[in-house]
Design goal:
- The complex is a heterodimer of chains A (646) and B (166).
- By secondary structure, chain A is an alpha/beta fold.
- In chain A, 57% of the residues lie in helices and 14% in strands.
- Among the domains of chain A are: 325 residues, Rossmann fold; 83 residues, no CATH class.
- Chain A is built from 21 helices and 14 strands.
- A six-stranded antiparallel sheet of chain A has the order 2-1-4-5-6-7. In chain A, strands 8-11-12-3-13-14 form a six-stranded mixed sheet.
- The relative contact order of chain A is 0.14.
- The relative contact order of chain B is 0.21.
- Classes of the chains: A alpha/beta (646), B mainly alpha (166).
- Chains A and B meet through helix 8, helix 9, helix 10, helix 13 and helix 14 of A and helix 1, helix 3, helix 4, helix 5 and helix 7 of B.
Chain lengths: 646, 166
């Protein structure tokens, strides 16, 4: 796959770019030399090419700085390409008033001669044309020797850019962003994400777990003691009864009391059962409730609620052709009936209201029934209390008569009852879930099981969140280490590959002194046959090595790209230029070289001997920002720019 | 339908699981097993409906205690409880009882034929809120009952006070 440059065009841009159209032909030559004096917009043209190829966003100040003069409001740059022999034009539209820039693509194969917004390039090429790589083939020749400079990192950056290793940096940035996001999310639960904080949370959780175990133990102990105590109370009652029963007269009284007690329990049980059943019927609970139900029922009859005609009736009627009155039902009548139908209830709504209405009308209640039952229950409870007093009286009399055993049993029983009351309070304190009771008893997670459970849940949540967040962050660090190691390893392999490829080229072009790249670090480290480390290569050799490196690198790109270079030999002496001009032209498939007149000597003139595949353009200023373009070798040779004087 | 108890009602009635009056003394009588969680809810509800005031949903427990309509012991009472709710809502919202359209609108809003309680979802939710108000009054005016017999007597006395203030 191949990209070739066929020309470019400018409109209303500063310098010599007010209206310039460079045409390299539909089948461009392999080498193009463009000569123009400084100040004609060479650097600007190179920048415009890079921006248009990469689609870079331009600041408003940059856009405005390109304006030819105050009279123009819009400007344009267009670069023309052949992509696998298909012509495509990329355009950069500039609006000097608002400082905006937009990119467009014109392709002949698009329906309607299509000019579409954006860079509509093949996906692989669009991905390839990133700024760092584009700088390598739209190249500033004055920077060539920087590729060799070990103190800089141009060579390594070039490799990273071509092979997309810079996208691995994006993975690292994404990991950092995700970890930050996870920490923000977790911070609503806990701020602890480091080991120290997690240990504190673990300690806090252990504290509640210990408290919970202690509370559970207290609860079990209290419940067990309560059950035992209640049995003990029964035993004491039995012992007291037995002791009292030793006296035949008292025994008879006790038997009578016990018998009566059983009867009362049974009767009270019956009353309470019946009362509960009556209570479950709302009209029986209180006359007020019965009255409310009956009033509502009566009101529904009075208001004639619900309607007897349902919404469904009218919907069915609207389906008929003729009304029950014999009149035809047309479109207008049908619409009127359907609109009116919504004012009526649906059949199920009517049914439920009717059901309730019927139930209300039939609701009956005997207001006295519950009164009677509760009154009977109260009598039984009063009788039970009287029996208790009677039994207490018998006990007290015996104790007064000097029955020490009975006195001791009575004391034991009183003490046990007090203990049981305390135990019940303990159980309530331990188990109550009622927030009002918890507040009243001043309970906290240290003293109440439900509150302790809740605290346990909160602290477990905090620890889990912190642990997960820390694990997530550690996994993120591992991933970043892995990405870094992958990137480093990949760069090493790619450096070796590009080194080998560059050295192949160097072995073909440097016959006399066999200079090689020893290693690519940040820059290129050289060696020759004579010395292990070659520090003093000539300027020409350095440039040759730089271009050999560039061409080896660009050869690895999925597309063969044109090499557009500004001032390829400006910084070196004439002898070195000749050397360069002999060596580098064969490196590239298409080479477009911007030269100034001082570069003709040694460099440009070396092309004169090539009979074909060379195109010469000479651009001369005409005043007012316009330029004249002359094609051909003669004009090229004859041009005298200000630099040539110097 | 999801019946939700007011917070604190379980403790007030001494529920230990399904058994009432279990926490405050020896369970010598069987009354506790006859008194259901729904009985506790219903007793609160009647007081709330009578007062025609609703309580805040934040004073309800988090989860329903019963999710499939009324218990068997309340069979046949659905329409009457629905009627008491309609009556309470008409009073709470100061609806003119002779305003036929508004009364009908309220009933349509509160009732649903297909629900086992005959109530719509908003009707069900209001029922729980009325129970909150009833429980509030119960807590204020009654001692926590030790057993069913004491509760019946105390609850009946509350209605007697109601009668005296009517």
């Amino acid at each position: 796959m191949e990209v070739r440059l066929t020309g470019w065009r400018t409109e209303n841009l500063r310098g010599g770019l007010r209206n310039l159209d460079i045409d390299l032909g539909s089948e461009p030559d392999r080498w193009t030399l463009i000569q123009m004096p400084n100040g004609m917009g060479k650097t600007t043209t190179m920048d415009l090419m890079r921006w248009t190829l990469t689609g870079r966003e331009l600041p408003a100040a940059t856009v405005r700085s390109l304006r030819a003069d105050d009279h123009v409001t819009k400007g344009m740059f267009e670069i023309r390409l052949l992509i696998d022999d298909t012509p495509i034009r990329l355009q950069l539209d500039l609006d000097f008033r608002d400082g905006s820039a937009s990119y467009w693509t014109v392709s002949a194969d698009t329906r309607g001669g299509g000019r579409r917004e954006g860079r509509k390039l093949p996906a692989e090429l669009r991905e390839l044309l990133k700024p760092a790589l584009t700088e390598l083939f739209v190249f500033n020749g004055e920077l060539a020797t920087q590729i060799l400079d070990l103190s800089k990192s141009k060579a390594a950056e070039a490799i990273r850019s071509l092979y997309g290793l810079d996208t691995l940096d994006a993975v690292t940035e994404r990991v950092d962003a995700l970890v930050a996001q996870e920490r923000t999310r977790a911070s609503s639960v806990t701020r602890a994400v480091e080991q120290k904080g997690i240990t504190q949370l673990q300690n806090a959780l252990d504290e509640v777990k210990t408290a919970k175990a202690s509370l559970d133990k207290q609860h079990r102990g209290a419940v067990t003691r309560l059950a035992k105590g209640e049995k003990e109370l029964d035993r004491l009652d039995q012992e007291i009864n037995a002791r009292l029963s030793e006296d035949a007269g008292v025994r008879a009284e006790i038997e009578l009391i016990d018998q009566r007690h059983k009867e009362i329990d049974a009767t009270a049980g019956e009353f309470s059962t019946q009362a509960l059943e009556v209570l479950r019927r709302p009209p029986h609970v209180h006359p007020a409730l019965l009255a409310r139900l009956q009033n509502l029922g009566g009101k529904l009859y009075e208001l004639k609620l619900p309607e007897t005609i349902s919404r469904e009736f009218f919907r069915e009627l609207s389906d008929q052709k003729v009304c029950v009155c014999g009149r035809p039902i047309g479109h207008d009548e049908r619409k009127a009936i359907l609109d009116g139908a919504d004012r009526f209830l649906a059949q199920d709504q009517i049914s439920v209201i009717n059901q309730m209405k019927l139930a209300l009308r039939e609701s009956k209640g005997d207001p006295d029934e519950l009164n009677r039952l509760i009154s009977g229950l109260q009598d039984q409870l009063a009788d039970r209390q009287r029996l208790k007093s009677e039994r207490d009286r018998l006990t007290s009399e015996r104790i007064a008569e000097g029955d020490e055993i009975l006195a001791r049993l009575g004391q034991d029983k009183d003490a046990l009852k007090r203990e049981l009351d305390t135990l019940r309070e303990t159980v309530e304190r331990l188990t109550t879930r009622d927030p009002a009771r918890q507040r009243a008893l001043r309970l906290g997670w240290e003293t109440n099981v439900p509150l302790c459970d809740a605290e346990l849940k909160v602290r477990t949540g905090r620890l889990d969140t912190a642990t997960k967040t820390r694990r997530f962050a550690l996994q993120g660090e591992s991933l970043k280490d892995l990405v870094k190691a992958t990137s480093t390893r990949a760069l090493d392999i790619l450096r070796a590959r590009v080194t080998a490829s560059t050295n192949d080229k160097l072995s073909q072009i440097m016959k006399t002194e066999h200079i090689r790249i020893a290693r690519i670090g940040g820059g290129l480290e050289l060696r020759s046959d004579q010395v292990a480390s070659k520090e003093n290569a000539s300027e020409g050799q350095k440039l040759s090595i730089a271009y050999a490196f560039l061409t080896s690198l660009l050869a690895e790109a999925p597309y063969r790209l044109p090499f557009i270079v500004d001032s390829p030999a400006v910084s070196i002496d004439v002898a070195s230029r000749r050397e360069i001009a002999q060596l580098i032209p064969d490196f590239f498939g298409q080479m477009v070289m911007f030269v100034i007149s001082s570069e003709r000597a040694g460099f440009a003139e070396s092309f004169y001997g090539r009979k074909k595949d060379v195109r010469y353009l000479t651009i001369m200023p005409q005043g007012g920002g316009t330029a004249d373009i002359q094609y051909g070798i003669e004009a090229f040779k004859d041009f005298h720019g200000p630099e040539s004087v110097a | 339908m999801s019946f939700i108890l007011p917070k604190g009602a379980r403790d007030f009635f001494g529920f230990d699981g399904p058994r009432a009056f279990a926490k405050r003394g020896p369970a010598k009588r069987e009354g506790g097993s006859r008194f259901l969680l729904f009985d506790a809810y219903y007793c609160c509800l009647l007081l709330g409906l009578d007062a025609a005031r609703i309580g805040d949903t934040s004073l309800l427990e988090g989860e329903p205690f019963l999710a499939s309509g009324y218990p068997e012991t309340y069979k046949g009472q659905a329409e009457l409880i629905a009627g008491l709710l309609v009556d309470a809502e008409l009073r709470r919202l100061h609806v003119d009882i002779d305003d036929r359209e508004e009364v009908e609108r309220q009933m349509v809003h509160l009732l649903n034929l297909t629900s086992p309680t005959r109530l719509s979802t908003p009707g069900d939710e209001l029922l729980n809120q009325y129970a909150v108000t009833g429980f509030d009054r119960m807590q204020e005016e009654m001692l926590e009952p030790d057993n069913l017999e004491n509760f019946l007597v105390g609850y009946h006395a509350l209605w007697a006070i109601q009668s005296a203030t009517d």
